[in-house]
Amino acid sequence: MIGIGLGVTQQLIGINIMMYYGTTILQESGFASSAALIANVANGFVSVLAVIIGISIMHKVDRRKLILTGITCTTLCMFLITVAQFAFPTAAFLPYLVIILTVLFIGFFQGCIGPITWLLLSEIFPQKVRGLGMGISTFFLWIANCLVALVFPILLAAVGLAFTFLIFTIFNILSYIFTYKYAPETRGKTLEEIELDFKFDDKFKENLVKDELE
């Protein structure tokens, strides 16, 4: 269940609305079509650069700390875009502010959240079910990806960009709560040690329930 949750929350953060609909978001914020297409190139460039940085630091920084820092920053970016859309809908600086926040969002996601999520999915399952566990988690991740991609333009048409980003800000907060509560720290541990951590945690919970019943 933790693997499925990590996969689903990764998508609910909203990375692929930025990647799939980046040009649309910029146009809705005030860029002309041609300018939005050119500006959206920054998203792809930053995405590649951030992944390289993320891969280079993932073994040097605690994984929980890295992914939680990433979600905190993506939440802040989403929130600031929401506030800007509500407060300054016709301001000349709005499209430039949105592109800056969009690029920052993608950078924090691709550098802190994306690589770590896939790494955790490869580590948290016991050896005998690792392939199955990763397969199921990946399946739900792509289902969530598909739903987000389908729902975003519907939301955009129904409630506008500001309310749509408000909804994804809430999704980011929920993703943080889930990750904080359930994502394990795996840095510096062997796969066997990670499996033992889960077993001891389950046994502790069982003993706690027994004590309460007695």
TrEMBL record:
Tell me the superkingdom of the source. Answer: Bacteria
Q: Name one GO cellular component term.
A: plasma membrane
Family annotation (Pfam families) = Sugar_tr
**Leader sequence segment:** none
Q: How does it sit in the membrane?
A: Multi-pass membrane protein
Q: Which residues cross the membrane?
A: 31-54, 66-88, 94-120, 132-152, 158-179
List the InterPro entries hit by this protein, alphabetically: MFS_dom, MFS_sugar_transport-like, MFS_trans_sf, Myo-inositol_Transporter, Sugar/inositol_transpt, Sugar_transporter_CS
Q: Does the keyword Membrane apply?
A: yes
Q: Which GO terms fall under molecular function for this chain's record?
A: transmembrane transporter activity
Which keywords describe this protein according to UniProt?
Membrane, Transmembrane, Transmembrane helix, Transport
- Residue ranges of domain Major facilitator superfamily (MFS) profile in the record: 1-187
Give the subcellular location.
Cell membrane
- Family to which the UniProt record says this protein belongs: Belongs to the major facilitator superfamily. Sugar transporter (TC 2.A.1.1) family.
Q: What is this protein called?
A: Major facilitator superfamily myo-inositol transporter
**Source organism (scientific name):** Listeria fleischmannii FSL S10-1203
Lineage, broadest ranks: Bacteria, Bacillati, Bacillota, Bacilli, Bacillales
